[in-house]
Amino acid sequence: MVQAKKILVVEDEPHLAKGLKFNLEHEGYEVVVAGNGEAALEFMNGQTFDLMILDLMLPKMGGIEVAKKIRETDTRFPILMLSAKSTDEDRATGLESGADDYLAKPFHLPELLLRVKGILRRWDWYKQPIHGQEIFHFGEMWINFATGKAKGCSGEFLLTAKEALVMKLLISKKGQVVAREDLLETVWGYDRQTETRTVDNFIARLRKHFEKKPQKPRFIVTVREKGYQFDPDS
Amino acid sequence: MRKLKALFHPIFIFIGVQVAWIVLMAVWIDWYLKNSRKFQEFAQKIRPDLFADELNWLILLEGCLLMLIILAGVYIIFVYWNKQARLNRLQSNFVSSVSHELKSPLASIQLYLETMKYQKVSKEDAADFVEIMLTDTERLDSLINNILESSKYDPKKMQLQFQPVNLGVFLREVVEGLKRQFEERNCKVKLEIQEDYVLSLDRRSMQMVFNNLIGNALRYSPIGSPLTIRMQKKKKFCEIDFIDQGMGLGKKNRKKIFKKFYRVTNQESNNIEGAGLGLFISKEIVRTHKGQMRVFSEGPGKGSVFTVALPMGKNSNRKIAANGGGE
């Protein structure tokens, strides 16, 4: 039997926390509820979780702070942020602080469940080693997908969760063209607010890490009107 | 960018205007002193009668008056500008906290409704969900009342219907109505009512005052912290104390918390819901009852006591034994 996925719900509104727990348990997940940021971090130290649903407005330590604290030690643990703040700026702040996804309150239950499923699926896919190994070498550089560490043109650094996912998809399909839409679907999941331009921005960032001349890329090549292609041997 | 914005703060602009004006004066005086001899020589040749020895007091006075008027003008502009800036800031704070306040119960109601629509829910769970949704609608209702009430704080516009109310019974009813909230925060309420008094009150607005005070005590106290509500007679007033063991208040905040839109901002209270209206409205309501509202706190972290003092009118100090109950 497959072990149930464990979700940590960090929500100070008792009503919402109870409703979330009820629904997630109905879907077969194991749920732990933390009423504030400090309790959440304590739970994180003692147990392993597959996902965190994090409210932004928490007493004492806010959600943004919690996300940043987690990102200090773990760059890839999946976090879904919930917030009553719904402007684009709030969304951007949430995502910048390290959340993988952002959902504004009030939300639709099916959408929440879909997003949870999506994040967990991506995380599962990410955890499988590619080409039978966790560390992938190309040129003088390498990426360790287990730790998120990588060596680029200017030394070692940590990849963010999304950067790692993009690299993983490109590398797992090396030599083939990966369409922007496929990248969006796999890395960002279904989200009306993400545009294909976002993908281009991420590719530009990755080229800065891995290409000596980002203007004339050697490894991450643009295939006109189709998408991107990773070429380790070029 | 933020530093650049800070330069446009009214106080910096005020100082800037003053500095600019003093510098201009200094430049002018410097220029005048350097050239005054030449002017004098020039003037002596043309109209020597101008150099009378006596000082022209009238002109000096006029000059001083003009300077005073300019200074006063700048000062008045500064004061109003500052006021406007403060109001703008408060208003944007208000909008963001109110939208949060409205969305939280709404999100909860939507979640439970959709749960009942999409999931298989047992009868007991469904009954529980309905209770939760009702509490949320109450919360929405009291917030909307607060917002509506705050826009007509002019006592003449408040339509109060005074009627004799047994305060002890009324308090017990209010506490009973908030039972679920007390349970959720694991809060033990102690009601200390020695004697019941009948006062002339507007039930609806006074309930808002008590709801606001109790709601604040719950939100600004840790879970499991007790609340004492004490009613006693002091001279010509009937005083109701709401004693919590929560965050308490510093001296500065004690004065400001009754202002419209004002909210205590520190690390602890950072993410506590609220629109900065409850205490403002409560004070206005108590004032229209010719009463007073006070707060006492030994300091941050030491709990606080909010007191509502209502006057005992001539007809209203009819005492009823505590256990007698009923109005």
Count the E strands of chain B. 8
Tally of individual helices of chain A: 8
CATH superfamily placement of the largest domain in chain B? Histidine kinase-like ATPase, C-terminal domain
Instruction: Indicate how many domains the architecture of chain B comprises.
Output: 3
Distance between the termini of chain A: 44 Å
- CATH topology title of the largest domain in chain A: Rossmann fold
Protein described:
The complex is a heterodimer of chains A (234) and B (327). Chain A has 234 residues and is of the alpha/beta class. Chain A has two domains: 6-127, Response regulator (Rossmann fold), CATH 3.40.50; 135-230, Arc Repressor Mutant, subunit A. Chain A is built from eight helices and twelve strands. In chain A, strands 2-1-3-4-5 form a five-stranded parallel sheet, with helices on both faces. In chain A, strands 6-7-8-9 form a four-stranded antiparallel sheet, with no helix packed on it. In chain A, strands 10-12-11 form a three-stranded antiparallel sheet. In chain A, α6 crosses α8 (196-210). Chain B is an alpha+beta fold and 327 residues long. Chain B has three domains: 2-88; 95-150, Helix Hairpins (Orthogonal Bundle), CATH 1.10.287; 162-320, Histidine kinase-like ATPase, C-terminal domain (Heat Shock Protein 90), CATH 3.30.565.10. Chain B contains nine helices and eight strands. Chain B has helices at 2-6, 10-46, 57-118, 123-150, 167-177, 179-184, 203-219, 251-256, 278-288, and strands at residues 162-166, 189-193, 196-202, 227-234, 237-244, 292-296, 305-311, 319-320. In chain B, the strands form two sheets. Chain B has a five-stranded mixed sheet. In chain B, strands 1-3-8 form a three-stranded antiparallel sheet. In chain B, α7 packs antiparallel against α9. The longest helix of chain B has 62 residues, at 57-118. The model of chain B is unreliable at 317-327 (pLDDT under 50). Chain A binds chain B through residues 12-16, 18-20, 22-23, 26, 35, 57-60, 62, 84-85, 105-110, and chain B through 96, 99-100, 103-112, 114-115, 117-120, 125, 129, 132, 135-136, 184, 223, 267-268, 270-273.
